[in-house]
Amino acid sequence: MNEFLIRMKSLLGEEYGQFIKYYEADNFRGLRVNTLKCSADMLKNAIGFPLEQTPFCPDGFYIPKEIEGLGNHPLHHCGAFYIQEPSATSAVEMLGVQKGDRVLDLCAAPGGKSTQIGAKLGGTGLLWSNEIVKSRANILLSNIERMGISNAVVSNVHPDILCSQLSEQFDRVLVDAPCSGEGMFRKNSEAQNEWSEAHVKSCAERQLNILNSAKHALKSGGVMVYSTCTFSQEENEGVITRFLEENPDFTLEDSGVTFGRQTLEYARRIFPMDGGEGHFAARLRKSGELYQNSFFENKNKAESKILDFYDSIFVDRPFGERIEVIKDKVIILPKNFDLPIRNWKSLGVLRAGVILGEIVKNRIEPHHSAFMAAKPEQCVRSVNLDCDSADIKAYLHGEEITVPENLRGYIAVCVNSMTTGYGKASNGRLKNKYPKGLRTLR
Predict the structure, then answer these.
(1) 379 is catalytic
(2) What is the pLDDT of residue 322?
(3) pTM for the structure as a whole
(4) Degrees (nearest 5) of the Cα angle 144, 267, 218?
(5) DSSP string, 32-101
(6) What does the pLDDT average to over 152-175?
(7) DSSP for 169-223?
(8) Model confidence at 291, in pLDDT bands (50, 70, 90)?
(9) Which of 238, 362, 364, 374 is geometrically suited to a Cys-Cys bond with 234, CB 3.0 to 4.6 A?
């Protein structure tokens, strides 16, 4: 730790005292509103404590230090917000995602930045989220599902393989690279224990390799953002400088943000005295004209039995009709995705789009994934519960609850007009279908 502080003093000079003052204070804690599910005003009115906006993202807010247990809050279960360190939202703001973009998040777990991208896409374009570590990729998938993102592909594969096989397919690429984690030392003692100058240098080499893989997936004229949650110059300015020297077809460009502080002319640094735990991000542009291409046209038609089931629980087929049956899963693919199934294994695809249902003994059972991606008005039947009610607490615990007698069959369960799951209603009771792995404990 002493070596780290000596390096920080050299980096910050006269500001080192201010850094230590903030470093010894409480951690910054935050959340980001999921605009796929609700607005900031809706969340403010429902959540029960004050929210103060951060400087890094219009949908990012500080959590008061006395608030605990937010992961068990019904509004968290329904995907109304993502608990995210405030400065971690900065990189996606610099990426400048536009509706209709195809975006690759190459090092995506646990999913904070991916779900932020998904919200900005608003159901248009395509989000491809990749994570090389399988256990973390499963956490990423769970968060993509919870936040109701229907146009995402989640994969678990080495960046070299993914980017070479998907050459020049993306308008924007985010590389939130694995790093020495100096910005997380205050909340993660393990990161402190792993730190050394040798580890910093090792991270910098790995980061440069990942960037050199990521460049292949980016279209000519596309934008790539490189980010870390560390302070070291080797992993930040050093990696960007080396990458630009090796890749003259890339330039560093202004992202238009004003948070944090400027470095390398257009890159941004965030320290604790800037309002967050710590982040670095740089926006790069690949030379050439941005063009539209398509490995994404699909004409597959679902059989009538599946469409009848689809229409029995959702209105106007909200996820489109790009339907594939893979083993026992009925999957609705994103509209802008058509990678042949034979290629899924080589790219480690864990899921594409949403799971409409599972085939069980010649019938189809609905899947939690589809309900999470649907708005209440897109469901044929729904029941709306207040986030402070005893009924929603019982539902999230896995219990049966009372519903109106006229509701029968599969129905969406909503919290403050946001879907959080489903159940099967009969005779005024709702049989609980909330996944066991997500249920709360008493």
Answers:
(1) no
(2) 92
(3) 0.95
(4) 50
(5) EE-TTT--HHHHHHHHSS--EE-SS-TTEEEPPTT---GGGSHHHHTTSEEE--GGGGHHHHHHT--TT-
(6) 97
(7) -EEEEEEE-----GGGTTT-HHHHHH--HHHHHHHHHHHHHHHHHHGGGEEEEEE
(8) low
(9) 238
Q: Is it the case that residue 418 has pLDDT exceeding 50?
A: yes
Six-digit token string for 182: 């100096």
Copy the structure tokens of residue 324: 């594939």
Tell me the C-alpha to C-alpha distance, in Å, between residue 437 and each of 66, 142, 211, 218.
27, 10, 35, 37
Q: What is the mean pLDDT of the chain?
A: 94
User: How many of the other CB atoms lie within 10 Å of CB of 320?
Assistant: 15
Catalytic residue among 78, 107, 179, 229: 229
Q: Where are the beta strands (DSSP E) in 362-426?
A: 363-366, 382-385, 401-402, 409-415, 418-426
CA 172/CA 159 separation, integer angstroms: 15
Residue listed under structure tokens 């207040």: 386
Mutual angle of helices 112-121 and 134-146, in 10-degree steps:
40
pLDDT recorded at residue 423: 98
What angle do the packed helices 16-23 and 2-12 form, to 10 degrees? Answer: 130
Q: With a cut of 90, say whether residue 262 has pLDDT above it.
A: yes
Q: Is the pLDDT of residue 296 over 50?
A: no
Question: Quick check: 277 pLDDT over 60?
Answer: yes
Exposure string of 17-55, with b = 16+ CB inside 10 Å and e = fewer, is eebbebbeeeebbbbbbbbbbbebebbeebbeeebeebb
Beta bridge partners of 358: 329, 365
